[in-house]
Amino acid sequence: MATVTATAPDTRTFAGTAWSWITTVDHKRIAVLYLVTSLAFFMLGGLEALLMRLQLATPEADVVSAERFTELFTMHGTTMVFLALMPLSAAFFNLLVPLMIGARDVAFPRLNALSYWIYLFGGIFMNISFVAGGAPNAGWFGYAPLTDTAFEATHAIDFWAFGLQILGVSSILASINFIVTIINMRAPGMTLNRMPMFVWMSMITAFLIIFAFPAITIGLVLLIFDRYIETSFFIPEGGGDPVLWQHLFWVFGHPEVYILILPAMGIVSEILPTYSRKPLFGYAVVAYSGAAIALVGFGVWTHHMFTVGLGPIADTAFAISTMAIAVPTGVKIFNWIATLYGGSISFKSPMLFAVGMVSMFIIGGLSGVMLGSPPIDAQVQDTYFVVAHLHYVLFGGTVFGLFGGIYHWFPKFTGRFMHDGWGKVHWLLMLIGFNLTFLPQHMLGIDGMPRRVHTYAADMGFDLWNMMSTVGSLMIGFSFLIFIINALRSIRHGEPSGSDPWDGGTLEWTIPSPPPVYNFAHIPIVDSRYPAWDIKRGGGHTGAVATAPEADAEADEPDIHMPNPSYWPIVMAAGMVLAACGLIFHQAFILLGAVLFAISLIGWIEEPAG
Amino acid sequence: MHKAPRSVTRADRDECRPIQGRRSTPLTRNRRIYAALLVPALALAVAACGVTPQTTLEPTTEAARTARDLLMFVFWAMVVTFVLVEGALLYCLIRFRRRSGDGIPAQTHGNTPLEIGWTIAPAILVVVIVVLTVPAIFSNARAASPDALQVRAIGHQWWFEFQYPEIGVVTANELHLPVGRDVEIQLESNDVLHSFWVPSLRGKLDMVPGRDNKFTIKPEVTGTFPGQCAEFCGTAHALMKFYVVVETQAEFTAWAETQRAERVPPASDLARQGEETLTLGGCVACHTIRGTDSAGILGPDLTHIGGRQHIAAGLLENTPENMRAWLSDPQGVKPGNTMVIPELTTEQLDALVAYMQGLK
Predict the structure, then answer these.
(1) Prior bond of A145 cis (ω within 30°)
(2) Cβ under 8 Å to A: B residues 84-123
(3) Residue B263 in contact with residue B234, Cβ under 8 Å?
(4) Best interface-test mutation with A: which of B58, B66, B73, B74 has the largest number of A CBs within 10 A?
(5) Largest Cα–Cα distance of chain A, in whole Å?
């Protein structure tokens, strides 16, 4: 059995430091890996967006070619959804879930590392396509039959299909890990009813991933069959149906929207109470409405398909279910506002981002109700109105929420504050830039500009709105630079924050920043939803964080047993991705990948877990 | 919200003229306010309708009006909701901002009646929207009358083919329809997904290979209305446009008569030379020109190309210069398109342009 001190690699050398990161199974370090990687991909997806905006700034522009434009919007969507926002949420799951539930790590630390490495290699794999014969170019939802070999003979679509399969494995493994962690590893006394709201939303998100990803997995398998062994699941000439792809994609794709927004909702549900010094209003209702959104979210997918021609009965049924989902969403917003009511609100940068999330998400939700009505949708579907709507949800909602989370928990990661003034500048520029970018796109859609067009004619009346939109997008890009510089500077030179800079209520604020490898020297006993507040404020819940007797005994020992570092996760992930390369570059990679996978599997099993 | 169908003409834009000269009429206070609101609104409408030909806000059919009315109703309902909710948010942020000397505020955890209330409120709103939506869904899906004009619209990468099986007309990228009569349009695709969308006529419906989608349009106003493919269909998706020309029954009949006829024989030596270039070159492999040996089916029927208002799937106005530009560099004008044109001499180009311009 290894201990923390005995197995830690020598971090005084660069090689030792690198090796310690490669072999780490510590959820906090994996969180950092997720955070840095997802921000890098976020920047890449943002650059793709900026190129598109430059092309569309003026009519009939020639900044990028039509072919390149199709790659840009496909990879922008794919990157932002699968490589930036989901993994950014995963960074928060990793950092916060064990800390918030009073655990020392996740249930399966090596599996956690495996999820990360698969994600990293999968993301690189997909982006290699840009220099290996052409990037995916059929849109992020890759509608059949445009994805068939008859219309895309190069490997562009294969990179996309295998890439998504690989990333799906990563997401499903991570979800299983977090569900098991949340259900089994909560500190004594932390009933489901006392779990922090972020943990609730993480658990719901993990369940959503587990139930939603199989649909796209099956769709992608069928697509790969269609492309590689000439089946015709989606090809009408062979008796297939392109609409089948749409069903499979959106049965996954709509829950995916909630996979992207629920973690941000969880973050906001932590930030608002902290900076208002009041518990979350209607805790149970906020939790249940999250679950309700997740459940109903599986029953609304054909609202993405109102223009396919499924008939008035189907359109009516899905219009009703879509409208229904507005109710739990609205309830969440009202509860957040009620949390602020009567509070003592401090406007630090995390709070500004959280408030920005709430107010921008409202707009996305309201335009969603408009789209939920099929006769309206028939006009604005596949136009810039939809682009505006989805960005109000995923940028106004998710990105604002997640950035709020970064500012809020940065001190916990690093022990230092991010500069609050520059944080506010970032927020203001991003808020203005975001609205300047996407508000005019509603008008563009209503005035008849389809999405996914690489150009538009000068006489269509789209010029002004597009120019505004491009100016706004440049502001967003600029604000992100401010954020990056602020973050990099603050890691070393930020003001020291201490362990509890915001007067937090949840368990992570009761331990030092950055937290020790073992998180909690003593496993706490929890008897309320905001145990840290109880300690600080005394009152009815004195002694909320006590020490469990068995944990006490453990802590008396000089070392707390932690899992060993392991290199098998990275080897196994490399094996998987190499095997996928084999189906694109040369078959020999399949063999190589399979051998690596097998070796790592055996090594993994034989390895003492610590 | 459902306004009685008014008879709309394209000349409706005249409404948009600022009302001048009425000042001399004595106005009551109410009418004065009404006018004060109306003038900027109309000015905005002028700005909107003058410059955005493809807008959804200028419906010219029952179906498009239904969608527009619903859009406006839901839009204003959402605006009211937005103002109330964001107002509440801002109120809380301002009213309860931290002041020096603030202690720990009262720790409220919830309020069941309140929470039930704000569960019911959005529920009522969406029920209202559903109640208005459902009849619109069914009225938009209504079947065509038995005497409806039948049209097959077929999507190709990246152009639209229009067939009128009953009257034996085949054309491309310019759909002619008689005013005041039901038209049943059957939507098909030859390759990938496309979508048929003419915002002023009705909402879009996808063209799905292997599926028979159809919808009914009853044009009420004569004029030319722009449309565009609205489902991503590959490289030149942005350049896959078309026009709908709504005309009187007499004009339509005359047009159909012309379209049914074989091509107009070339009228000049230059044009004759053009026909030769075209039929002896590779063009016949893909294009049909009835009355010549040209009978390909992969590209648009060119029998009456000279009579169309646009070429290259609604992309360019049909002028000799544009025709020449298109023939000189089809991939440059429309990236990704598969038209293969051999190297042409200037004389050959002149001849081709002259010939095709003559194919009225």
Answers:
(1) yes
(2) 85-86, 88-89, 92-93, 96-99, 102-111, 114-115, 118-119, 121-123
(3) no
(4) B74
(5) 78
Q: Kindly list the domain boundaries of chain B, sorted by start residue.
A: 10-51, 269-358
Q: What is the pLDDT of residue A557?
A: 46
Gap between the Cα atoms of A376 and B56, Å rounded: 10
Please give the span between the terminal C-alpha atoms of chain B, in angstroms, as a whole number: 46
Residue A172, CA atoms < 13 Å, CB-side half-sphere: 15
- Residues of A assigned a catalytic role: 76, 105, 140, 170-171, 254, 256, 258, 269, 303-304, 329, 332, 451
Could you give the CA distance from residue A397 to residue A272 in angstroms, rounded to a whole number? 14
Residue A232 lies inside a defined structural domain of this protein: yes
CATH number, domain containing residue A242: 1.20.210.10
How many residues are given for chain A?
610
**Residue A551 to chain B, least CA–CA distance (Å):** 31
The CATH number corresponding to B269-358 among 3.20.190.10, 2.60.40.420, 3.90.470.10, 1.10.418.70 equals 2.60.40.420
Alpha carbon distance A389, A410 (integer Å): 30
Predicted pLDDT of residue B17: 39
What's the angle, vertex CA A532, arms to CA A531 and CA A537, rounded to 5? 100
CA-angle at A532, arms to A526 and A536, nearest 5°: 125
What tokens appear for A312 in the block?
Answer: 């008035």
What would the pLDDT profile of B88-142 be if each residue is shown by its tens digit? 999 999 999 999 888 899 999 889 999 999 999 999 999 999 999 999 999 999 9
Nearest to A336 by CA among A201, A437, A468: A201
> Is the separation of the CB atoms in A67 and B235 below 8 Å?
yes
Report, as an integer, the average pLDDT of A208-216. Answer: 97
What sign results for the dihedral spanned by CA atoms A62, A66, A67, A71? positive
Those residues whose C-beta lies under 8 Å from the C-beta of residue A383, and which sit 6 or more positions away, are A444, A445, A446, A448, A449, A450, A451, B230
ipTM confidence: 0.91
CA B270: distance to chain centroid?
38
Domain-located, residue A18: no
Q: How far apart are CA A183 and CA A221, in angstroms?
A: 32
Closest CA to A26 of A594, A564, A602, A607: A564
Q: Would the pLDDT of B314 be above 70?
A: yes
Tell me if A571 sits within 8 A of A599, measured CB to CB: yes
CA distance A228 to A226: 6
List Cα–Cα distances, B195 to A241, A250, A309, B57, in angstroms. 17, 19, 11, 19
Residue A86 domain-assigned?
A: yes
CA dihedral A226, A230, A235, A240 (to 10 degrees): -90
Other beta carbons less than 10 A from residue A173's beta carbon: 19
> Which residue, A33, A445, A507, is CA-closest to B54?
A445
Q: What is the number of domains present in chain A?
A: 1
DSSP class per residue in B67-104: HHHHHHHHHHHHHHHHHHHHHHHHHHHHHTB--TT--P
How is residue A383 annotated by DSSP?
A: B
Yes or no, beta carbons of B105 and A381 under 8 Å apart: no
On chain A, the residues whose CB falls within 8 A of the CB of B335 are 65-67
Q: How many CB pairs under 8 A join A and B?
A: 276
Answering whether pTM is above 0.90, one says yes
Return d(Cα A265, Cα A256) in angstroms, integer: 14
Look up the domain containing A485 and give its range: 24-563
Q: Say yes or no: B309 contacts chain A, CB-CB below 8 A.
A: no
CA distance A340 to chain B (A): 6
**What is the C-alpha separation between A138 and A145, in angstroms, rounded?**
10
Q: Give the residue among A283, B315, A263 at the shortest CA–CA distance from B326.
A: B315
Give a yes or no: residue A379 inside a domain: yes
